[in-house]
């Protein structure tokens, strides 16, 4: 089973139905281009293999990289476990987003469709893990940052602005993964229903 | 449009197809019982209106209540913003889980089916908000608890065991909402595809 396949143009199916005789003829002509079972016809914006999907991945990569850079630029991040966890989550996010972005670029260049059920399930699981990791890291670091800034008021002794930047970028990154995760889950659910 | 409707037994549809003439007759007889468009036939365990769905809600309610009780039993929770946020998220979770549990009990008692598209979308949005709230509250409180316990080693001056219990229950609660959220999203995606 191939992981990708040539793009099938969905607009032909959505066109108004021709007369019955012509329809039969057209159906026979289109036979070799038919969708394999369990594959969605619609290519929603943001799904893997689309330009907007690639844009989402690049945005995630940039935001995770900024979060990682802002946090690791501080000298005392190693003394707080939550900050180390955010750095680890941001590194994982960078690796994952870069990998999927490379697959997206390949798919766009050779015009292959990535709406394969196994591939979409893999993307969904990867997105779920990285989304949960980045979001939990950002939340934990936000808890510490608010404690330092608002509760204890010891910002003068710490790099509060760097911590805040890292946390904000971590949250924005996890909000950027959410659409990819949702669209992949939607795609998995739809293909399962259509295949049933 | 009614939010609930009488249960339609899906086994009749899954039965082997009778002869064509008998099938037409049976179809005419079954006309009043047909599914409205955009409603899933399958009732997966854990969905609203099923006994396992009710069990999930009751578990969420209990875990959120334990987390709330453990955190609010400490005398110094009000000095840390993350702990106050966890308490607020646990209260919201209790209210939401109790409300949906009451709807589930009603649906089970009067044997109504809750697989209506609007109702499932409402459950999905509510689950998403409460799941994100409880998970982020647990993460933020976990960051502070790990800071107190591992990084600063000042557990002797704080109620570490209560904080740890509250955080653990918060995490378990958010892991209990995840199946409800996923199943409702699956149901929304499936009904949209079937209705399209």
UniProtKB/TrEMBL annotation, chains A, B:
Residue ranges, compositional bias (Low complexity): 17-37
Region (Disordered): 17-42
Membrane topology: Multi-pass membrane protein
Domain Casparian strip membrane protein: start-end pairs: 48-176
Similarity field: Belongs to the Casparian strip membrane proteins (CASP) family.
Pfam family, one: CASP_dom
Name of this chain's protein: CASP-like protein
Quaternary state and interactors: Homodimer and heterodimers.
Entry GO CC: plasma membrane
Keywords: Cell membrane, Membrane, Transmembrane, Transmembrane helix
Localization in the cell: Cell membrane
Membrane-spanning segments: 83-110, 122-148, 168-189
Keyword Cell membrane: yes
């Amino acid at each position: 089973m191939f992981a990708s396949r040539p793009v099938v143009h969905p607009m032909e199916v959505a066109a108004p139905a021709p007369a019955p005789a012509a329809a039969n003829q057209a159906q026979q002509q289109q036979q070799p281009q038919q969708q394999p079972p369990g594959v969605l016809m619609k290519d929603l914006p943001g799904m893997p293999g689309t330009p907007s999907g690639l844009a989402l991945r690049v945005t995630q990569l940039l935001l995770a990289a900024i979060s990682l850079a802002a946090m690791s630029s501080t000298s005392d991040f190693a003394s707080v476990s939550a900050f180390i966890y955010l750095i680890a989550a941001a590194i994982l996010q960078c690796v994952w987003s870069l990998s999927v972005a490379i697959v997206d670029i390949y798919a766009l260049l050779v015009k292959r469709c990535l709406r394969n059920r196994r591939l979409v399930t893999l993307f969904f699981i990867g997105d779920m893990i990285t989304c949960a990791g980045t979001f939990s890291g950002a939340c934990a670091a936000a808890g510490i940052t608010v404690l330092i800034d608002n509760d204890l008021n010891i910002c003068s002794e710490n790099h509060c602005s760097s911590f805040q930047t890292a946390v904000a970028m971590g949250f924005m990154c996890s909000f950027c993964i959410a659409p990819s995760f949702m669209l992949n889950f939607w795609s998995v659910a739809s293909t399962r229903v259509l295949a049933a």
